[in-house]
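Recall that a protein's primary structure is simply its ordered list of amino acids. Everything else, from secondary elements to tertiary packing, is in principle encoded there. The following example makes that idea concrete.
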Amino acid sequence: MVIFAGACQSFFEALISAGANFASSPGRILIDFLDPLIVAENIATTEEYKYLTIDDMAKELRDGKKGIGGIGANGKMKYI
């Protein structure tokens, strides 16, 4: 399970310490509504043996690491 929490200008540090893998707005800025979807898509379409961090996705996000942060997660795609 991967948890993405928060909204614009949320308390990023509290969300991460509460157990979220990714959370919005470590820079306390308004984020683009597509940024959480981009993170979710990357996790869903990455093989389960690969660990993703926000550094792997930062270039795809409008505001980069100021808009979305987190500790990372394993990909969720499985080959059957």
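The mean pLDDT is 93. The chain has one domain: 4-74.
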